[in-house]
Predict the 3D structure of the following.
Amino acid sequence: MVITSRFGWRRGRAHKGIDIDLVTGDEVVSVLDGIVRFSGYNTGHGRTVVVRHFNGLETTYAHLSRYAVKANDTVRKGQLLGKGGVSGNARGSHLHMVVRYKGIAINPEYIFDFGPETRIRSQELWVTRKWTSAYNHSSRQRSKLELLTSEEEALASLEKEKKIYVVKRGDTLTRIANRNGISIRSILVANNIRYNSMLKIGQKLVIEP
């Protein structure tokens, strides 16, 4: 399974899912048992299936070429949901997959291991804002995983999480670095930008402690 675009910041916008390479007509299956909440057409996502799982997660499978299920169907892990395609606003055939909990998108790679056989990483996971904010990730590279399996681990992680700085009029890299008590180099590395990159008002920068 090849992930071509990850959960994260992409071309100035938040990409709140992952894109998985496939050929039109490839089978798309459910990652867990659940009930189909939606099977229909969405303007941006095209033919889409949404499955609500019994652990509270909800997974979305978009850009399909055809459906194999309808709303209210009960599905099992590995059951066919539809066939991959290029419906909706898709550039080439791929599967756009989103994972949500109570309406909040979560980085799918934090929840699932997309190896030869997709599996949930742990039966108990604590999710902090690091894994729900696309601003904290790049769609071009896999984020380093640190699974939080207890409240203690989650609280400790919150103490050292990145924060987001919004560029204001008159800001420079030097001014932003001084204001946040960090080096200019750390800003460049965290945001994959160069020293001479032009900052734009409203641009979001990751600030690492």
Observations:
- The chain has four helices and 16 strands.
- The CA atoms of residues 54 and 137 lie 28 Å apart.
- The chain has a mean pLDDT of 92.
- The first strand starts at residue 3 and ends at 5.
